[in-house]
Amino acid sequence: MIVDRIERLSLYVDLVPSIARLEELVYSYAPRMDGFDVNATLCTLFIPQGCRARVATGWREAAASRDVTGAVEIGDGDFALFLPGERYIVKCDGRCRKYTLE
Predict the structure, then answer these.
(1) Which helix (H) or strand (E) holds 26?
(2) pLDDT per residue over 19-36, tens digit each?
(3) Sign of dihedral through CA atoms 73, 76, 77, 81?
């Protein structure tokens, strides 16, 4: 899990090249989550829209584990980026944009 300010998002282009064309990409809004999710092959980016969100990640090595290994609250102007295979859960107080990135 990477958490940072939105104005610094371009610093992560070497890690996730599609960040460079974020304005062109289709996004959805984060669904209500009752448990961890994972994308085995793509990165997942969450950007709160005028709200707060709690984001957490669990151990990738123990797929059956529900242990949280990192949790943080993000808000307007922040983002959370989860790498492929990284288990995550996001709880938004409002709308959070969700991008699936190559």
Answers:
(1) none
(2) 999 999 999 999 999 989
(3) positive
CB 66 within 8 A of CB 36: yes
Structure-token pair, residue 73: 């609250």
Contact criterion met (CB below 8 Å) for 26 and 47: no
pTM, entire model = 0.89
- Residue 46: CB atoms within 10 A of its CB come to 23
Record the tokens describing residue 8, joined without a space: 């610094």
Q: What's the half-sphere exposure (Cβ side, CA atoms, 13 Å) at 49?
A: 10
Please state, in angstroms and rounded to a whole number, the distance separating the CA atoms of residues 90 and 101.
Answer: 17
At residue 65, does pLDDT exceed 80? Answer: no
Spatial separation of the C-alpha atoms in residues 52 and 31, rounded to whole Å: 14
